[in-house]
Amino acid sequence: MKYKASTLMAVSLAGSVITVFMLVRLFIHGRGVSLFQTHYVPNFKNVPGVDYYDLSNYQGNKDGWQRADRVLFCVPLRDAANHLPMFFKHLKSMTYPHNLIDLSFLVSDSTDDTMGVLLNSLHDLQSQADGTKRFGDIEIFQKDFGQIIGQSFSDRHGFAAQGPRRKLMARARNWLGSAAIKPYHSWVYWRDVDVEYVPETILEDLMHHDKDIIVPNVWRPLPKWLNYIQPYDLNSWVESEGGLQLAASLKEDDVIVEGYPEYATWRVHLAYMRDPNGDPETEMELDGIGGVSILSKAKVFRTGSHFPAFSFEKHAETEAFGKLSRRMKYSVVGLPHYVIWHVYEPSSDDLKHMAWMAEEEQRKMEEAKIREFYAKIWDIGFDDVRDDWEIERARILKNVDPNVLDRKIQVDWSDDDSVPYTEDLDTRKDNRNRDGKVPVDFDPDHN
Predict the structure, then answer these.
(1) Sign of the dihedral through C-alpha 105, 108, 112, 115
(2) What are the DSSP E strand ranges found in 279-330?
(3) DSSP letter at 217?
(4) 3-state secondary structure 222-277
(5) Handedness of CA 258, 262, 266, 272 (dihedral sign)
(6) 392-438 residue pLDDT tens
(7) DSSP alpha helices (H): ranges in 107-207?
(8) Beta bridge partners of 294
(9) Each residue of 238-258: b (16+ CB within 10 Å) or e?
(10) What does DSSP assign to residue 288?
(11) Using CA atoms, how far apart are residues 138 and 126, in angstroms rounded to an integer?
């Protein structure tokens, strides 16, 4: 068999390359050096007070619960004493490995017993007999920001309060994030304390989408008289031409807030895209995001994204965080059919209506009592007695014989003083004859 010279040369050259590669690899590995190592890794184990972190190892994996990704759970608190028991109940039930979750709380501008309830709840949380149920590092920060806006639903959601409120909340979030995020954190999860229902697998459910920033849909239950349910968080949206035109017409420090007639943007809101039968895995790219529940890779904050405490593209806080992160080429995503439920907080109008409902209920009760009384009187006054009358009539007329109606009835008046004696009759007759007048006791039957 004959071979071409070019074929023999190619085979010989390939064999030589493979041989050289294998010899070099054996030589390098024999000296304990990896061929694919790109940089030197120092060893500071024996150097007191020195910690070394390779930040490339904390980028955030979509299966972080299997790769020991550490999550920082950030919770801003203000007058939250009533909601903390519910929050810690959810916390205990989370399925993400608790030892991989670090908790950071910021308590600010509170007038109730938020700190006391928080400390008692944390003591109970970390005293569980099952060590796997205990959480990692826990930090509590106390800092006031001079909040001048009340905590009622109407105070917090009134249009006039939105701009200042969002900027103050942004300052609080930035302060907490800058103090709490450590180099070894791969993910940062922001959650409001007043969430009523949230899946136990919330971290895994959001994390496995492998997005830089991701939020669920947020609705709230309502009383029966308010139609049961309602979209809650309207801060997660897709930018619109109307929104851009509105932003261009506003002043430099103005802040657009969604859901108010003063700022009509005609944006597509994540909340209104919900389908109860939709696939919870469906993703939707967003520009602005709400702050009830945000899962973000820690690298987003390390590279400079934050919650603007000023008007950034005419937005502040979480909505501006979404826009800023998009500008930095990070993915910002929402899940329209994956829903968590916020607590119902009655507005001032709701409270007024509820007061009216209570008064109306009392009025109806009083009216029912009056109706019941008059119903009894009506029954008595207009009772049908026709049957009773027939019985009574028979008793009254039982001795009457209708066939002998012309019989003469004899009455014996002898024992009645009103019947005059014979001598009296004669005297009366004489008197009548004398004066020609008829006596007063004239009896025509006795002439």
Answers:
(1) positive
(2) 284-285, 293-297
(3) E
(4) CCHHHCCEEECCCCCEECCHHHHHHHHHCCCCCCCCCCCCCCCCCCEECHHHCCCC
(5) positive
(6) 777 676 666 655 555 566 777 666 666 555 555 555 555 555 555 55
(7) 114-126, 153-157, 159-180, 202-207
(8) 190
(9) bbeeebeebbeeeeeebbbbb
(10) B
(11) 10
Instruction: Indicate the pLDDT class of residue 284, thresholds 50, 70 and 90.
Output: very high
Q: And the tokens for 226?
A: 């308010």
425 to 418, 444, 445: CA distances (angstroms) = 13, 12, 11
| Closest among 198, 212, 168, 193 to 61, alpha carbons compared | 212
CA 62 to each of CA 58, 66, 210, 295, 445: distance values in angstroms, whole numbers, following the listed order: 12, 9, 5, 12, 130
Length of the chain equals: 447
Q: How far apart are CA 85 and CA 400, in angstroms?
A: 89
DSSP-derived letter for residue 137 is -
Q: Which residue has the higher pLDDT, 417 or 146?
A: 146
For residue range 1-32, what is the model confidence (pLDDT) as tens digits? Answer: 444 545 545 546 555 656 666 665 555 554 44
d(CA 444, CA 447): 6
Q: Which residue has the tokens 């004239």?
A: 442
Take residue 151 and report the two structure tokens written for it: 């905590």
CA distance 324 to 315: 10
Tokens of 83: 């909601």
Can you read off the two tokens belonging to residue 126? 């970390």
pLDDT in tens, 328-363: 999 999 999 999 999 987 656 555 655 655 666 677
- Residue 237: CB partners within 8 Å, gap ≥ 6? 258, 265, 267, 268, 269, 270, 286, 287, 288, 319
Is beta strand 213-221 parallel, antiparallel or unpaired with respect to 332-342? Answer: parallel
3-class secondary-structure state, position 168: helix
CA pair distance 15, 24, nearest whole angstrom: 14
The span from the CA of 422 to the CA of 416, in Å, is 14
Q: Look up the pTM and report it.
A: 0.70
CATH architecture assigned to 55-345: Alpha-Beta Complex (3.90)
Query: Which amino acid is located at 341 in the chain?
Result: W
Distance (Å, whole) CA 150 – CA 142:
19
Q: Determine how β-strand 268-269 pairs with β-strand 237-238.
A: antiparallel
Round to whole Å and give the CA distance between 64 and 71. Answer: 9
Beta-carbon contacts of 316 under 8 Å, excluding residues fewer than 6 positions away, are 163, 166, 167, 170, 255, 307, 308, 309, 310
Q: CA-CA distance, 416 to 24, in Å (whole number)?
A: 159
Which amino acid, residue 158? G
As a whole number of Å, the end-to-end CA separation of the chain is: 183
What 3-state DSSP class applies to 392? helix
Distance from C-alpha of 225 to C-alpha of 367, rounded to nearest angstrom: 22
